[in-house]
Design goal:
With 707 residues, this protein is α/β, with parallel strands linked by helices. The chain is built from 23 helices and 32 strands. The chain folds into 4 domains: 220 residues, Medium-chain alcohol dehydrogenases, catalytic domain (Quinone Oxidoreductase, Chain A, domain 1), CATH 3.90.180.10; 137 residues, NAD(P)-binding Rossmann-like Domain (Rossmann fold), CATH 3.40.50.720; 81 residues, Rossmann fold; 194 residues, Dihydrodipicolinate Reductase, domain 2, CATH 3.30.360.10. Helix 6 packs across helix 13, helix 15 packs across helix 22 and helix 21 crosses helix 23.
Amino acid sequence: MEQLIQSLKDGAMQLMEVPFPALQSGQLLIRNHYSVISPGTEGKTVKDARLSYIGKAKARKEEVKKVITSAQTFGLMKTYKMVMNKLEAYSPLGYSCAGEVIAIADDVSGYNIGDYVACGGNTAGHSEVVCVPANLCVKVSKKTPLKEAAFTTIGAIALQGIRQSELKLGESCLVIGLGIIGQLSLQLLHAAGVKCIGIDIDENQVQLAKKQNHPLIFNRNHSGLEELIVEETGGFGVDAVLITASTSSSDPVELAGRVSRKKGKVIIVGAVPTGFSRQNYFKKELDLRMSSSYGPGRYESAYEEKGLDYPIGYVRWTENRNMQAFADLVENHKIDLNPIISHEFDFEDAAAAYQLIVDKKEVIGGIVLKYDTGKELKREVILNKKAVSDKQVNIGLVGAGSFAQNFLLPALKGKVEFIGVATARPTNSRYIADKYGFGFCAQDASELIRNTQLNTVFIATRHNTHARYVIEALHADKNVFVEKPLCLNETELEEIKEAHQKSKGILMIGFNRRFAPFTAKVKKFIGNDLPVSINYRINAGQLPADHWVHDPEIGGGRIIGEACHFIDLAQHISGSAIDSVAASAVRTSENLLDNVTINLSMKNGSIANISYFSNGSKKIAKEYLEVFGAGKTAIIDDFKKLTLADSKVQTFKSEQDKGYVAEVSAFAEAVVQGKEAPIPSDELFLSTLASFKVIESVKTAGEKQAL
């Protein structure tokens, strides 16, 4: 299938052959009939992508700050490569479409194959096939033209802004900004019996609104505009102002303050600065509100990804109900989209549609892309057919987020043969395939694992999928490399053990710190005069409370998801199996387990204290490891500096090296030579089990947990 993509590096756009998106839990697979280009939101994205590097930096100041922080941690060259990787990636466009359901996840009810639906969100873009969560889809009557239904998501944005205004029949509203959302807002307000006034600085948009017979439409520069607005509202000012414009100017917010009545409402729907003069907002006690996209539920993983709904008695209008309400208005001809649709392009000509927006040489309203629904679509993309040999590592990659792209794949390059890749986002699959020379892009992980050319599977997906993919790959007798964690609970661990015992493939977890050069030096320096004492401090840094890693069902929490790394390294340095675990945690207001002290006892008498803290300063390095034993001390400072002390003190410095290259090299060598995995499986399983026991110990007030 084809999808419209652009390069963030230079703004170049093209239709690209990509695999079908993978149908995941809670989702629908939809063949698009129409999608809508939002001239405001998408136009800005395209214009920003065409800026110079300096222009991009000025437009994205927060991103620049992140780059500076990254350079301080990883160094200039590594950070440069990470930035260029992001700029060169294929970026999808679009967020509002309509089409026909062609597949449904097992846990989704209320839909049938062949239903017409309108869809929204980041995955509802300009693509022949899209995969969209059920709460971001609404059914559309067969009587409703799908060209009009494709506006449903954009209509929901306008509708949510109006709901935030709480306008009632007979009241008045000023709409500032007559782009597509402003035009739809005027129609919705008129249908609700609200007196509408619309303004814009672009005369083309003013004329587009006038053609819809809205009587009070003016150019922002109209002489005596403010007096006219006050006069049209009986001398009081408008009851509410909807700011649907997108601008860096503070004029919309300032104007809203001047023309609002006392105790009126100002609703920001578009992207405008919120700084304003205090006088009018203070004297009139104005209510300034933000409108969040399509409505309640937007950007919430529990709602959008897991399909959990708000009870209607508590939240009357969610994003899904807003979308359904707009679709119903279209079906019942309460909204007339024909005057708003200014252009229609075949999907093949999508780039020309965006150029029209950039050029701004004519009136632009809603632009729809029409798809050829009779075209035969391919589910996978074959880029080149590779000759494979059992004497090489032939890998399939499942998942390729930022970690895989910035660390794992560069470490693998030149050491393995890249055969196939499957990721959640089709554009990401194709980008990775092109950059690293993979032979094909698959629709999903199962299709990849079944491929007979592969002898090895690398898994770098979200944590909740690791166990399923590991077990499936082991059952297929593939060698498996999985990024931490191995799994999220003891039941999954036992299932993996069973699959591993029966499989011909070897299993390895990405515990890379074992393979760091400084780790090897410490092991050699301390020697075998055990036991040892280990003190390991991790300044992990905060993650937002709603980050997916904290979700027990998806990420498993930071102890299972990341602290397992440090548990494993302590076990490795001690040279002995973990015997017991005890832990205690600082309870945060969000009740997150990310400030934890972990005490490990080893069978050979070694002990380790792991202080995993997220509440420290970002200015302090992430990791500080101390090892004491046999009159010797070794200190690893963030894997950049090593101190070895006995009767003398030695200091070593290097670029940060946490062992990624050595790790995958050792794994590749084991596969080619038919050797055991570089990390014994019993150690992998024990480190994983220990992370689960940490959680149990915290829940039992630090009670020791035997392994």
